[in-house]
Write a structure and sequence with these properties.
By secondary structure, the chain is of the alpha/beta class. The longest helix is centred in the N-terminal third of the chain and has 13 residues. The chain has one domain: 3-Layer(aba) Sandwich (Glutaconate Coenzyme A-transferase). It has a ten-stranded mixed sheet with strand order 4-3-2-1-5-8-12-13-14-15. Strands 7-6-11 form a three-stranded mixed sheet, with no helix packed on it. Strands 9-10 form a two-stranded antiparallel sheet. The two termini are 26 Å apart. The chain is built from five helices and 15 strands. A hairpin with a 2-residue loop joins strand 9 and strand 10.
Length: 215
């Protein structure tokens, strides 16, 4: 069964949501990570932090609550949940660097078997800078990478990243449409196989050695 892009994103985002628990302070990166909040059950209430200085990010704005001054780090209009607040850049980055974010979920260009992350630059393409990702990944208590398993048929989980690193040895979990991996002591461990994949498929599309622990 060949999945559409929307189906792939739904599978990844819904699985990420299972890692988010009541009271967690969470930063969700651009794209698929942001969608994870849509799959939280009503009983789970998290506090979403945006690096531009919003704590308690709610739903996206619609025509009934348009306010161009309230945006997330991607410049998208958002609402503020009850109890939410705004802060300056100093406070926002102090939260990120100071270990006050429980879980950060980001996308990636590559992740390797030692927990190294490359998600900001492709050689030969102009990129203005790494941005707040370098602060998020160093300060967060848990770093989850939510991404498609391959890009243009090429594996994104590799033995060793060959793209510029965002951070070394900090990734704790990788969630794709095919599998869930954990990284412990610089070892890649397969923890779950998606109903839409198989062990043979994962081996064929993962360019890294991994252990298997499906218990």
């Amino acid at each position: 069964m060949e999945l559409t892009k929307d189906q792939i994103q739904e599978i990844i985002a819904s699985r990420v949501a299972k890692e988010l628990h009541n009271g967690d302070v969470v930063t969700l990166g651009i794209g698929v990570p942001t969608k994870a909040a849509n799959y939280l059950p009503e009983s789970v209430k998290i506090i979403i932090q945006s690096e531009n200085g919003v704590l308690g990010v709610g739903d996206y704005q619609d025509d009934s609550n348009r306010d161009e001054c309230v945006i997330n780090a991607s410049g998208v209009g958002v609402t503020l949940n009850p109890g939410g607040c705004f802060m300056d850049t100093l406070m926002a980055f102090s939260m990120m660097r100071g270990g006050h974010i429980d879980i950060t979920v980001l996308g990636a260009l590559q992740v390797d078997s030692e927990g190294n992350l490359a998600n900001w630059a492709v050689p030969g393409k102009f990129i203005p800078g790494m941005g707040g990702a370098m602060d998020l990944v160093v300060g967060t208590k848990k770093l989850i990478i939510a991404m498609e398993h391959t890009a243009k048929g090429m594996p994104k989980i590799v033995q060793k990243c060959n793209l510029p690193l965002t951070v070394a040895h900090k990734v704790n979990m990788i969630i794709t449409e095919k599998a869930v991996f954990e990284i412990k002591n610089k070892e890649l461990i397969l923890k779950e196989i998606s109903p839409y994949s198989s062990l043979e498929d994962i081996k064929a599309t993962t360019a890294a050695e991994f252990k298997i622990d499906l218990n």
